[in-house]
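Appendix C reproduces, verbatim, an entry submitted by the partner laboratory led by Prof. M.T., so that reviewers can inspect both the input and the predicted structure.
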Amino acid sequence: MAESRGGSFAPIPEPDAPNLRHRVSGILATMNSHLTEGDQVPVDLSPNWIETNTHYRALTENKAGYRCIRWLIEHILDAGYSKGLSPGTSMYSLLISLPQDGKVDYSNTLRIGYDELTQVAEFKLKVNKAIVWETTCQPSEVIDTLEHFLNEHPDWSRAARSK
């Protein structure tokens, strides 16, 4: 349905569908490449991590406390964990999901966030919406905490370290 512009009632023309993708820019353009639940997982999820890193950097550029999450994303890329784990963000939190049967599955998701009030990083693993593991750490310990998490969760370790 066409909308009106301000006080005038001249309709805004509807874009033609075949060219819509080329006309979209900014945040909507970056959303198009995100995977949704049930999508086939690519052989290498690193491009999704690079995009997540770029988006997260822009979002937290002036928030010094969130540097720890940026460091963690860069570590995941550098270590190659980005190949087998699915990234996402929710506001300022990093979401990492474990693909199942070659498909995107958000039922097993690790949420990593920074609490500005307490100045600690928080890790929470939810499986089927229930928190099954959680811890906090100092911002300087996020990489060690992720490594500990991977060592304690063999299914996550296989997905992160096997590709």
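The longest helix spans residues 46-60. Additional entries are available on request from the coordinating office.
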